[in-house]
Specification:
15 helices; about 0% strand
């Protein structure tokens, strides 16, 4: 339990250092609104697909495929649970705010937050299962998630929501794995370089957005409490009970639960920027849930390791 606290606490502290850099960059006008919008597009259309493809660059193994399919099933169950819970419990008079909150409940930071933690706790095999979870996340977030956030926005297109870099990269990555296709170094190395941006850049964007808040506004988190509670505690515990009842144990269970109990996805803020949603609310939920996750992830992951 103490080791889990150290690893999770270290990871979250690193993220908040990055957020603080974005915050001060916004305060001194080094980072601008137009710059953030451009960087946001780079993240969505270049960096995220590279993360997925890079994760699937490994040799095919039947047992790995079996467990990968279980991790995909766990991810589907997790997202269905989160969607249902968010739909039933989050009722906001302002539908635009409600959409952002329900999105926040449904989607966790199973990429940049969960994968490094999985690697630290259970190693490369766990990261591979985490990639399976991430694959479902990307397919859903770019279809259902983008539809949810972009509904009614002139820039939303249902065809683009289905045929997009996140979904395409997930399909390509899976094909690469089952065929044991190895990308040549000349292509793989640039993909790895871009994948490395998946952690720092979203945090800089969030930090910049928070820099536009007044201090008194930053300290008010009343509107964010319910989505954060559902995302960090309620939904993960429901999933843990289901996966344990299914007989899933060991590395696969730990990997799935780390992904499921991660804080609110940074893409919540990115899509809010893209579709002119409530960016301040989205960014605050991401930042505050990341802070609270120091405690919640430690307890849930520690308990999962104990029972598995």
């Amino acid at each position: 339990m103490i080791e889990s606290l150290r690893i999770v606490g270290t990871q979250v502290f690193i993220l908040f250092i990055l957020i603080s850099l974005g915050y001060f960059g916004g305060k001194i006008k080094m980072i601008t609104e137009n710059g953030v919008k451009s960087i946001n597009e780079i993240m969505l259309y270049f960096v995220t697909p590279c993360v997925i493809i890079n994760a699937f660059q490994r040799d095919y193994d039947p047992q790995l495929l079996h467990n990968l399919l279980l991790s995909i099933l766990a991810s589907i169950i997790s997202h269905v649970i989160c969607y249902i819970v968010g739909f039933l419990l989050i009722r906001d008079r302002d539908e635009a705010l409600g959409r952002v909150k329900r999105f926040a409940v449904a989607y966790s930071n199973c990429g940049f937050m969960a994968l490094p933690l999985i690697d630290a706790l259970v190693g490369s095999e766990g990261v591979f299962y985490g990639a399976g979870y991430l694959m479902v996340f990307n397919i859903l977030v770019w279809t259902h998630g983008q539809y949810t956030m972009g509904k009614g926005h002139s820039g939303f297109n249902i065809k683009k929501a289905i045929i997009n870099p996140g979904v395409i990269a997930s399909i390509i990555g899976f094909i690469f794995f089952v065929t044991s296709f190895e990308l040549p170094v000349l292509i793989l190395e640039p993909i790895k370089y871009l994948s490395a941006l998946n952690t720092p850049v979203p945090m800089l964007i969030i930090g910049y957005t928070i820099s536009s808040f007044e201090l008194k506004e930053q300290l008010k988190i009343k509107n964010e409490i319910l989505p954060i509670l559902l995302r960090l505690i309620i939904c993960p515990l429901i999933l843990l009970g289901i996966l344990y009842a299914m007989g899933i144990r060991g590395t696969l269970l730990i990997s799935s639960m780390i992904s499921a109990c991660a804080p609110i996805a940074a893409i919540t803020a990115m899509f809010s920027i893209k579709y002119d949603g409530n960016v301040k609310l989205a960014s605050k939920m991401v930042a505050v849930s990341s802070l609270f996750s120091i405690i919640t992830m430690t307890l849930i992951v520690g308990f999962t390791r104990y029972i598995s």
